Amino acid sequence: MKEGVRLHMLFGLSWGEWASITTIIVFMAGVVSLLFKYIVFGSFQDDIKDLNRNFKTLNDNLREIRISITELDKRLNEHDRRLDRHHERIKDLQNKIWGGN
After folding, report:
1. pTM exceeding the 0.70 threshold for the entire prediction
2. Calpha distance 57→49 (Å, rounded)
3. 10 near 18, Cβ under 8 Å?
4. In the 3-class helix/strand/coil scheme, how is the chain assigned residue by residue?
Protein backbone atom coordinates (compact mmCIF):
# COMPACT_ATOMS: atom_id res chain seq x y z
CA MET A 1 0.00 0.00 0.00
CA LYS A 2 2.90 2.34 0.59
CA GLU A 3 3.80 2.22 -3.12
CA GLY A 4 0.28 3.40 -4.02
CA VAL A 5 0.67 6.31 -1.62
CA ARG A 6 4.05 7.23 -3.15
CA LEU A 7 2.45 7.67 -6.57
CA HIS A 8 0.34 10.45 -5.11
CA MET A 9 3.30 12.35 -3.64
CA LEU A 10 5.81 14.81 -5.08
CA PHE A 11 8.93 15.83 -3.13
CA GLY A 12 7.45 14.25 -0.05
CA LEU A 13 4.16 16.16 -0.21
CA SER A 14 0.79 14.89 -1.30
CA TRP A 15 -1.16 16.44 -4.14
CA GLY A 16 -3.58 17.93 -1.61
CA GLU A 17 -0.72 19.62 0.21
CA TRP A 18 0.63 20.96 -3.10
CA ALA A 19 -2.85 22.28 -3.92
CA SER A 20 -2.98 24.00 -0.52
CA ILE A 21 0.47 25.55 -1.01
CA THR A 22 -0.45 26.72 -4.52
CA THR A 23 -3.70 28.23 -3.23
CA ILE A 24 -1.84 30.09 -0.47
CA ILE A 25 0.77 31.42 -2.95
CA VAL A 26 -1.91 32.58 -5.41
CA PHE A 27 -3.88 34.22 -2.58
CA MET A 28 -0.80 36.02 -1.25
CA ALA A 29 0.11 37.18 -4.78
CA GLY A 30 -3.43 38.57 -5.12
CA VAL A 31 -3.18 40.41 -1.80
CA VAL A 32 0.23 41.86 -2.73
CA SER A 33 -1.14 42.87 -6.13
CA LEU A 34 -4.12 44.68 -4.57
CA LEU A 35 -1.93 46.43 -2.00
CA PHE A 36 0.47 47.46 -4.73
CA LYS A 37 -2.40 48.77 -6.85
CA TYR A 38 -3.98 50.87 -4.10
CA ILE A 39 -0.85 52.02 -2.28
CA VAL A 40 1.50 52.66 -5.18
CA PHE A 41 -0.89 53.53 -8.00
CA GLY A 42 -3.61 55.12 -5.84
CA SER A 43 -1.74 58.40 -5.59
CA PHE A 44 -1.01 58.33 -9.30
CA GLN A 45 -4.71 58.01 -10.12
CA ASP A 46 -5.45 61.36 -8.45
CA ASP A 47 -2.51 62.93 -10.29
CA ILE A 48 -3.74 61.52 -13.59
CA LYS A 49 -7.24 62.90 -12.94
CA ASP A 50 -5.75 66.33 -12.19
CA LEU A 51 -3.63 66.11 -15.34
CA ASN A 52 -6.70 65.24 -17.44
CA ARG A 53 -8.60 68.21 -15.97
CA ASN A 54 -5.64 70.48 -16.72
CA PHE A 55 -5.49 69.22 -20.32
CA LYS A 56 -9.21 69.88 -20.72
CA THR A 57 -8.78 73.41 -19.35
CA LEU A 58 -5.80 73.96 -21.64
CA ASN A 59 -7.78 72.76 -24.67
CA ASP A 60 -10.67 75.06 -23.75
CA ASN A 61 -8.26 77.98 -23.42
CA LEU A 62 -6.64 77.19 -26.76
CA ARG A 63 -10.08 77.05 -28.41
CA GLU A 64 -10.90 80.50 -26.99
CA ILE A 65 -7.54 81.84 -28.16
CA ARG A 66 -8.16 80.51 -31.69
CA ILE A 67 -11.57 82.21 -31.73
CA SER A 68 -10.01 85.46 -30.51
CA ILE A 69 -7.28 85.28 -33.14
CA THR A 70 -9.88 84.71 -35.86
CA GLU A 71 -11.87 87.73 -34.67
CA LEU A 72 -8.73 89.87 -34.47
CA ASP A 73 -7.73 88.76 -37.95
CA LYS A 74 -11.12 89.88 -39.28
CA ARG A 75 -10.76 93.24 -37.56
CA LEU A 76 -7.23 93.64 -38.91
CA ASN A 77 -8.41 92.91 -42.44
CA GLU A 78 -11.15 95.52 -42.08
CA HIS A 79 -8.67 98.09 -40.77
CA ASP A 80 -6.32 97.25 -43.60
CA ARG A 81 -9.09 97.90 -46.15
CA ARG A 82 -10.00 101.16 -44.43
CA LEU A 83 -6.36 102.24 -44.44
CA ASP A 84 -6.13 101.47 -48.17
CA ARG A 85 -9.24 103.59 -48.81
CA HIS A 86 -7.79 106.48 -46.76
CA HIS A 87 -4.54 106.20 -48.65
CA GLU A 88 -6.39 106.42 -51.96
CA ARG A 89 -8.41 109.43 -50.77
CA ILE A 90 -5.23 111.19 -49.64
CA LYS A 91 -3.63 110.50 -53.04
CA ASP A 92 -6.74 111.88 -54.79
CA LEU A 93 -6.65 115.01 -52.61
CA GLN A 94 -2.93 115.49 -53.31
CA ASN A 95 -3.58 115.14 -57.04
CA LYS A 96 -6.36 117.72 -56.87
CA ILE A 97 -4.34 120.17 -54.79
CA TRP A 98 -0.93 119.87 -56.46
CA GLY A 99 -2.07 118.86 -59.86
CA GLY A 100 -0.98 115.25 -60.27
CA ASN A 101 2.14 115.01 -58.09
Report:
1. no
2. 12
3. yes
4. CHHHHHCCEECCEEHHHHHHHHHHHHHHHHHHHHHHHHHHHHHHHHHHHHHHHHHHHHHHHHHHHHHHHHHHHHHHHHHHHHHHHHHHHHHHHHHHHHCCC
